[in-house]
Specification:
mainly alpha; 24 helices; 489 residues; single chain
Length: 489
């Protein structure tokens, strides 16, 4: 997980402080080469900068974000391997060992996310989220009530589901009831993005960055935070969302939306799948806390729960279908709508529906950051940020940076640098990296996704108008953390 973080700090340092990069030269620690002033190092930085520029322009180019970073990763490691191959005095296989370590880091993260995505897709297929959306629409809440309801739901769902899925669900509700009231849709979408990102910051499962920090505790317990430590961030996260929400709600139209909504029932087994997901999370936490095993092992064990349940649904489908034949025509139609497909439940369809572009993007990020760190740039960034600036300033800057770059490579870069910090500082960077992306609509996956879902209503400049209010919440959450968690520093 440390690799992703390297990327962000690396890129930032190289772009903002090229003179620092040019000043470092020759050999590094032990037998590893310092290539920071070598043409290979400069080329690697340029390749990564171009690749990440294409990632940021995905909304306009429609080029999936995984493609440029995967290509960049391959080129960077090819350059590194070629340089090490030409230095025959070095031990054989140094670059190979380094890239294998990167692959192990990626495998843990990818498999963990794959299980989580599979459960989310399974619940989606069983109409769990659609039923929630339908219920909220049919209740006929006013715009201001709906503003608070979707914000609260986004805040408390994102710690279990991811912030992207949560934001898309709540946006569907807002679009369904908002209609042509563009002002309400804009404000509600901003509120959802802030709430989803804030809610994900206090849970190991709420965001990729918190997951990376939690998994890092396996290999270096003294550096990262354990499962329960994340909940110290609950109150700062609430503050981060409530401050801008309180300011924005006064601008929400005090009107009643028109229209109702069709009732949607969950399909057979939906509630049991939700229960199995909670059991899977419990298993992952237990593997980590009690058995001192990587959480991914517990998550994969939990995937077996879903697989066996899918087998049960498939075997019992015909029996339930035959029972429905004894019902009236109207009741039979209702029963069939809750049964699902003829193939009652195929877990591998849920795996196939996982967001593979995101998973492959993580691969590119991990390998790119690992390559730049192996070249030597991350050590330079760590010296500048965490020694010269100081940990608090550096961690606050990480959050601001994550609004421009993505918080995943930023956090990966920090974890790769692995600065010597107190638990309070690790919680601080977890908080800032998680909520800093709310400052701009392009700063988080939730914001980018909602710009597409509510195209023309939720826009970059519409979000930017409320950035001062969001920044006030960002600053307030930091002050709150420094105050109530002072014993952690």
């Amino acid at each position: 997980m440390n690799k992703s973080l390297q990327l962000a700090a690396l890129m930032l340092t190289s772009l903002l402080l090229p003179s620092l990069a040019l000043g470092m030269a020759s050999t590094g620690e032990g037998s590893r080469l310092d290539l920071t002033d070598h043409w290979v190092g400069f080329t690697a930085l340029a390749i990564f900068a171009i690749a990440y520029g294409l990632v940021m322009a995905e909304e306009f180019t429609h080029l999936r974000k995984s493609k440029p970073v995967i290509l960049a990763a391959g080129i960077i490691w090819a350059l590194v391997a070629w340089v090490y191959h030409t230095h025959t005095e070095l031990p054989v296989g140094m670059a190979e060992q380094a890239v294998r370590h990167n692959l192990l880091e990626y495998a843990e993260l990818m498999l963990f996310l794959l299980v989580a995505m599979t459960y989310i897709n399974a619940m989606d297929e069983r109409n769990v989220f659609e039923a929630l959306r339908s219920w909220l629409v049919r209740k006929g809440f006013g715009f201001r009530n709906l503003f608070w309801i979707t914000g609260v739901l986004a805040f408390f769902i994102s710690p279990v589901a991811d912030n992207l899925t949560t934001a898309l669900l709540m946006c569907a509700v807002v679009m369904a009831v908002g209609g042509t009231n563009n002002k309400f849709v804009l404000l509600a979408c901003i509120n959802i993005v802030v709430a989803a990102n804030a809610g994900g910051a206090f849970s190991p499962f709420g965001d990729i960055t918190t997951l990376m920090v939690w998994q890092k505790a396996i290999s270096t317990p003294q550096g990262a935070v354990d499962f329960w430590s994340f909940f110290h961030l609950f109150i700062p996260s609430v503050v981060n969302w409530l401050v801008p929400a309180t300011l924005m709600v006064m601008a929400v139209p005090n009107e009643q939306p028109t229209g109702g909504g069709e009732s949607v029932e969950m399909k057979r087994g939906a509630k049991r799948i939700m229960l199995l997901f909670l059991c899977t999370i419990t298993t992952a936490v237990s593997f980590h806390n009690f058995l001192h095993m990587p959480p991914v092992i517990g998550m994969l064990t939990g995937l077996a729960y879903l697989q066996f349940f899918g087998y049960y649904l498939k075997k019992t489908y015909r029996k339930d279908h035959q029972r429905a034949a004894t019902l009236s025509d109207e009741m039979e139609i209702e029963h069939d709508s809750q049964m699902g497909d003829v193939v009652a439940f195929d877990v591998f369809r849920k795996v196939a529906r996982a967001e593979w572009d995101t998973l492959l993007f993580f691969y590119g990020v991990v390998l790119c950051v690992g390559g730049l760190g192996f070249i030597g740039y991350l050590a330079m960034a760590s010296q500048l940020m965490y020694v010269e600036w100081g940990a608090t300033t550096a961690n606050v800057a990480v959050g601001v940076l994550s609004a421009i770059v993505d918080n995943i490579p930023v956090m990966f870069a920090v974890l790769t640098m692995m600065p010597d910090m107190s638990a309070g500082q690790w919680l601080l960077v977890t908080l800032t990296a998680g909520v800093g992306g709310s400052l701009l609509s392009i700063g988080s996956a939730a914001g980018v996704a909602l710009m597409g879902q509510a195209r023309g209503k939720y826009t970059f400049f519409g979000h930017l108008k409320w950035t001062p209010a969001i920044a006030l919440g960002y600053a307030a959450s930091i002050v709150c953390h420094l105050w109530i968690n002072s014993g952690q520093f």
